[in-house]
């Protein structure tokens, strides 16, 4: 089955990427599993020294699950098959590793995430992934969310034109 990694960082643009992935499966008829992936930056030496490696690792996983909650809820509500992955390290490189490790065929990312430079057209992680990803990358810009049809209505819209 086709596997699509969707980078999730808790930003609205990341949720737009999830909406796009869900729409591909629900409306586009794509047989795919969404892999909702989140990357936590590595802990500082001070954090490791004061809290310990196990506590920092547990906190990273918990934070990742919290940041992915909306994305998970969206996939569940749509009835789309999904998995979650949480990585630790430099964001772009870790997402590339995640693509390879999870056997993903495509990557969907938001145009920008939670980084500091809001005025840029394409975030630094998005740019790096477009350059480094071994699979095709779809960059999703912000869009107003569309309502997805109910399960029993999805076949009625096939071939219809507005």
Give structural notes.
The structure is a single chain. This protein has helices at 12-26, 45-51, 53-78, 91-101, 124-132; strands at residues 2-7, 32-40, 82-88, 106-110, 137-140. It is of the alpha/beta class and 162 residues long. It has a single domain, classed as HUPs (Rossmann fold), CATH 3.40.50.620. α1 crosses α3. It starts with a strand and ends in a 22-residue tail after the last strand.
What is the C-alpha radius of gyration, as a whole number of Å?
17 Å
What top-tier CATH class fits best? Alpha Beta
What is the share of helical residues? 40-55%
The strand order across the widest sheet is: 3-2-1-4-5
CATH superfamily: HUPs
- Average of pLDDT: 80
Shape: globular
Number of domains: 1
Number of strands: 5
Pick out the low-confidence regions.
Answer: 114-121, 153-162
Q: Gap between N and C termini, in Å?
A: 31 Å
Give the CATH architecture: 3-Layer(aba) Sandwich
Q: What is the name of the CATH topology?
A: Rossmann fold
| Largest beta-sheet details | 5 strands, parallel
Attribute tags:
5 helices, alpha/beta, five-stranded parallel beta sheet, Rossmann fold, 162 residues
Give a short synopsis of this structure.
This protein is an alpha/beta fold and 162 residues long.
Write the layout of secondary structure elements.
Layout: E1 2-7, H1 12-26, E2 32-40, H2 45-51, H3 53-78, E3 82-88, H4 91-101, E4 106-110, H5 124-132, E5 137-140
Parallel strand pairs: 1-2, 1-4, 2-3, 4-5
Helix pairs in contact: 1-3, 2-3, 4-5
